[in-house]
Structures are given as C-alpha cells and as structure tokens.
Amino acid sequence: MSPRQSGHFHVVIVGAGFSGLGMAIRLRQEGQEDFVILERAGEVGGVWRDNSYPGCACDVPSHLYSFSFVPNPRWSRAYSPQGEIHAYLRDCVERFGLRPFLRFHHTVEEARWDDDAQVWRLQTSEGAFTANVFIFAAGAFGAPLLPALPGLERFQGKVMHSARWDHAYPLEGRKVAVVGTGASAIQFVPAIQPQVGQLVLFQRTPPWVMPRKDHPITRWAKWLYTHVPGARWLVRAFLYSTYEASGLAFLHPWLIRLAQRRALRHLERSVEDPALRAKLRPRYTMGCKRVLISDDYLRSLTRDNVRLVTDGVREVREHSLVTEQGVEHPVDTLIFGTGFHITDAPFAHHIRGRDGRTLSEHWAGSMKAHLGTTVAGFPNFFMLLGPNTGLGHTSVILMVESQLSHVLHALRFLDGRNLAAVEPTQEAQDAYVRDLDERMRGTVWSQGGCVSWYMDATGRNSTLWPGLTFAFKHRVARFEPSEYHAIARRTRGPATALARVTRVVHG
User: Fold this and answer.
1) Which domains does the chain show, CATH number per domain?
2) Separation between Cα atoms, residue 463 and residue 58, nearest integer Å
3) pLDDT value at residue 6
C-alpha cells in the first residue's frame, strides 16, 4: 500500500537517517503502513549523506555500526568509509520498500500539538500534514556550527564547513586554514595535506588521539560472514563486549589512565619533534572531551607544508587570519571543522506542546526528556537520540534500537486501548533526570578538567548517557504505563493496523 501524498497519517517521522529509517523498518515489520517520512534533503542518509569530506569514515567498527536486524556481510574495511555507510542506508530503503513512504525536500517549519483535535499539525515547505504520532528522528548533527570570528564576512577566499564540503573546489596548491581539531578535522586534515600547498591548523585544545588500527576485511572473511551467519554474530558480539567494557573507564576516571598511556605512546611514535609534541599533548583527563581515533592525523602534522597554531583567531581579514598574538597567516581557503549545534538544538524552537510553548522554552537552556525519548507536555511526541542518549565508547545504533523498541511498545499500548495519546508524567521525567545527573557526577565528563560540547549553557551534561548500553536497554526498551499519562479519545475511532498485530514486540 502506498501512503498518501499529504494529509493525515497515523505516524509522521521527521528525518531519514539511521534513526528515522530504523523506525520505518520496524513499523513495517510490525504491520504498520500508515506513516510517512519527511526529509529536508533530496536523499536519505542524514549525517552520512551530509558529511562527505575527504577521509570521512566511522569511528566505530563496521559490524557494530549497523542495525542488528539488517546485517551487512560486505563491509570492505574494519571501519566503514562514508560512502559505504550511505550505500548501506540506501540499501535498507530498497530492501524494506521504504521509497513510497519518503517525502523529500520537506523541511518542517513548525510542529504543534492541537489539543482540541488531539493531533500533531506540521507545516512543511511543501504543505501541511497532521498525525496522531510525531517521531522526531532528525538527529543532533544536522546544523553545522560556524564560530563567530570577527571579520569572517570580509574574507575573499573560499569558506566551507566540513559537513558542507564543496568537492568541485580544487585544493591543489592552495593555502588552507583549518579551524578546529575535532572528529571531522582529524579525518580530513591527513586526507588533504598531500594536496594543499600550505595548511595552517588552528588548534584551541589538543584532542586525545588513539590509534585506529583500520584494515581491509579479507575476501575469505566476507565469504564467511555471508554464508555462515553465526560468524557474523560472533564478531558483533565480540565487538559489543569489548567496546562495552571500555565504557567503564568513562564512569570511573582512574581506569582511563591505561588508555592515556597508550595514547601518549601513539603521540610519541607519530611526532618526533618535542616542541610539536608538547603542543599536541592534552592537559585534561582522557574522555572529558571526545576521544578520537586515527592512524595518520598526528603524523600528518609533522609534514613540511603544515603549521600548527595554538593561538586563538583574533580576526579574519580579506586574505588572511590574524591570531591573538598579532601574527598574520595569509590563506585563500578557510575550512571549519567546528562541529554542530548540539545543546542549543535549533529544532526545539519550532516544536510546540500542549501549552503552546516550544521545546526550547520548556528546556530553558538544558535539554531534558524522559528516557531520552519523550517529553512532559508533548503528547505522542517521541525523540530518537534525544537528550542524554549520546555515547563516548560505542555505537549509538545500540541506543537507537532500544528507543525503537520503546516507541513500538508505546504505540501498542496507545492503539490497543484506543487512546488519543500518551505523555510522560512530569514526576517520572523529573525523577529520571535527577538520577541521570546524580550518576553523571562521578564520570570523567564532570571531573576531567576540560570544556566540551557535551555541556550545555547551564553547565549540565545534557548530551551523554552516564552508563553502559545494556543498562539503557534494560531501562528504556520496555514501555511502563505507570510513567505516562493515558489521554482518552474525545471521539472513539478504530484501532490502527499496529494494534491488530498479535506477535510480541521484542526489545
């Protein structure tokens, strides 16, 4: 059955990245056909569509960074390159027949709960939609962050963010300035270094860098994963156990000293110059900021055409950047590897709940959600990879799958009882957030001595989950009715297809 082009749907999903496509797959598996996916771009993929910069790849092993219910035995490398991950998501669309459910170039301009009609009303760039259930799956990495550098508007050369890479622009022989040394920069810097004439890297805080140990997956291993499903399962189980165990170091910072020594050995092997090595040595506890992995980033900074600058940028001129010490660096290309709007959540300004206030007004500078998935005051609203669902040690796909299970159980409860809506109680949400904050206090993110994008404007870590993924699954995958308000219909209507499915939804 093909869904309608517009109008009313039982479920509207916003975003066609991992979270949105995973939700759509699970809905189809459970017999639900009355849904639509609204996507602002012209293709699926989310962050793996937008980030195509040179060297872009995942920093979680391929067999763990994929759906457990959509295995892929054909990964070419231990860590998947961007193109393969994007191809995997497109393949998911075809395998599960999701194309008819997708609406491309539909930017959601506003979404508000209509309490009288008991529906969500969404205004998009291509028209209006209504839905019983609104699932926000657009992720946290959709809005690139450009720092407010004085004079940036005067720069006469090329300016681009790593998430908006212009592949038509030639870098050969260019004088390139890179601002930022985060997860994107450590991938594209070694990729472009051999091409450019000169590369000036502006580093505010050095990251902890661990060796990546990437390698091709052999032909015989691919054959084994394809024809012996148990082999693929064992590899995934091994990776899961290994990475899950590493998460203990973030919760108990004294454990991370062993990893710090390994990172320092990697730095010493990669950089012989003691002066440069001193600039690249972090002065905070490993894990406080995102731990990065790379086999070639540190080594690329030793090349003759690379200069590392640790002074801040005072101003941008027409053809140069000037540091706080007054040193001028002539450049013709400026590339930002400065990340994304995370804790300020631009989307939150456009979603209105029962009382007419936006999510941003409810949050008042600090994102909060029950189970990282639902928000008090916003009936039938579900967020995938919402507040406090990020990870510092393993694949966020594990978190997504727990949330998918929660949403499916909520829909079963909602539709099976012919209710209009469910909404978390304020008491349940407050208790959950208090527990999160208490558990966060002893972690490296709170005691590591750094300033990171994990913290919001109030100084609270509203980004990460302070625990292991199996604990999140145990807490979130099931739906507990006592933590929710059940809102009755004002007019009775038929149950949906999902409510008529009889088989158990597994977490």
Assistant:
1) 7-143+341-498 (3.50.50.60), 152-215+224-336 (3.50.50.60)
2) 19
3) 63
